[in-house]
Amino acid sequence: MKCNDIRSALKWLLSTIIVEIATLINSNDTFIIAINAFHIVIALANLLMYTYYEIEAMHRDQELEDLKRQHNRG
Fold first, then answer.
1. What does residue 5 show for φ and ψ, rounded to 5 degrees?
2. Calpha distance 34→50 (Å, rounded)
3. What is the pLDDT of residues 17-32, one digit of tens each?
4. Is 3 left (phi over 0), alpha (psi -120 to 50) or beta?
5. Residue 44, Cβ neighbours under 10 Å: how many?
6. What pLDDT score was predicted for residue 44?
7. Which helix (H) or strand (E) holds 51?
8. Please, what is the Cα angle at 15 between 14 and 18, to 5 degrees?
């Protein structure tokens, strides 16, 4: 799944967790459990990455607004 923002990353995380838990319920294989845990970690990392990008974008927007205000004053 391609994620472009926090919302799609969160949807991917939730769908991954649901699918992986359903697979875990039906499996006793240690290898499958490890792969499922890895998929969940990747989905969490993706969500964290997009959260960081959104926070950085908000800071950039705020700095731009501050610069515009300073320019308009002086």
1. -155, 180
2. 25
3. 888 888 877 777 888 8
4. beta
5. 14
6. 85
7. helix 30-73
8. 85
